[in-house]
Here is the input.
Amino acid sequence: MTLSSRSRSRNDFASMVRPRWSPRVGLLVVVVAPLLAGMLLSSHGALGRDDTSVEPLSSIVADESLDPRLLSLELGGTRWHSALAELDASLFEHEVLERGLERSRRELIDVRIDLRLVTVDHRDAERVSIDLDADIAEARAVLEAGAIARFVRSGETESDILASVEKPTEGARRLQLSAEASDLQMKRWRNLTNRAEQMNSELSDLGGRKLELQTRERSLVSYIVSARATLSRSQDRIATAIEAVRQGRRHADIPDTDIPVTALDAYLNAEVLLAESAPECGIEWWMIAGVGRIESRHGELGGRDLDSIGLSSTNIIGIALDGGPDVRAIGDTDGGRLDGDSVWDRAVGPMQFIPGTWSSHGRDGNDDGTADPHNIYDAAYSSGRHLCYLGGDLTTVTGLERAYFGYNTSDAYVADVRGHAEHYREVLDGRLR
Here is the structure.
C-alpha cells in the first residue's frame, strides 16, 4: 500500500470510528547507492578520462620539489598515463562513494521518520481494534440477551401481549418498539463487524509497511557501515595514486626531447640559482642542458636511470686521464674520493667534472648540505657556474661558444653541444614560459 493510500484509508476509517488519529505523511526516497556507483563507473570508462583531459588532472597534483614551470608541461609515457588514469579512477570512485553515502544518509533519515509515523499509526490502529472488539462483544451480548428474552416469551402471542395491556394502542406500540430495538442492535452489530474487518485490513497494511521500512532501514545501515569502510580504503587509494603521479611525472617522457623530467628540473633550478648569484652571466637552462646531453645523456648514459633526487642508477665515471691517445694526463687530485681512482683522475657525474675542477666550482645545487658531482642538481648548478666563469656574458654567441670550448677544447664538441642546446630551446622554451 502506498503512503498516500494509507493516509486516505486511515482518515476515512477514523471518521467512522472516533477522532483518534491525525493525518501523517511519510517520505521514502529509494536510492540504491551501490548500483548507482556501478553504473556511473561503467559509464565513465575503464580509464575514466580521455587523453584530451589528462593534463588538467596532472596539474592538481602539486610537487613543491619541482620547478613550477614543469607542472603544466605536456608529458608522455606509459607509466605517466597509467598513473594519471589510476588517479582519475580513484578520484571518481571516491566521489561516487561520497555521493552514495550522503544520499543513503538522507534516505535513512526519511525512512526512520516514516517508520516512527507508521509505528504510531499501527499502535493507534491496534487500540481502535481493541475498542471495536469490545463494542462488538457488547453488541453481541445485547443481541443474545434479546434472543433469550424472546425464547422465554416464546409461548406469548401478539394477542396475549395486546390483551395484557389496558389499551390496544399501547400493545401495538410495545410490539413496534421491541422490533425496532432488535433491528437497531442487529444493525449496530453488523456495522461494528464491518468496521472491524476494515481495521484488520488496515492493520495488515500498516504491519506490512512497517516491515518494509524496517527491512530498508537495516539495508541502509548495512550499506552505510560498508561504504564508510570502503571510503577509507578509497582515500588510501587516492593517496597512493597521487604519489604515483608524482613519481610518474619524474619518469615521464617530454615529447620531442630526450630530457628526463628530473634532469630538466635540475637545469631549470640551476638557471634560477645563477640568476641570483651571477645575473651578469645571463645563462639559461638550455645552455646547461646541451652540455648534459653530450656528457652523459642527462645522467642516463648506457641505459642508466635517473632517480627523483637526481642520482643515476650507477655512478658515471669516465676513462682514466692517463695520457693515452687523445687523452690528457692528469694525476690523481682527490685520492680517489670522487672517481675511485687513486692514480689518475677521471671525469665524474652527469656533467663529467674532473675532480680538480669540481674542487673549484662544485656547489650544492639542491640545498641538501652536500656538493656531489654525481647528483645532477649539484652538477648542473656547478656546470652553469663553470660556464659563466669560462664565457662571461653568455647572452652572446661568442660568449657561449667560448664557454663550451673552455669546457672541452674541441670545435666538434662545441658544435654538438650548441646543436642540442638550441634544439631544446626551440622545442621547450616556449612551453615553459
User: Anything to note?
Assistant: Residues 1-55 have pLDDT under 50 and may be disordered. Residues 261-428 form one domain. The chain has two domains: 3-250, 261-428.
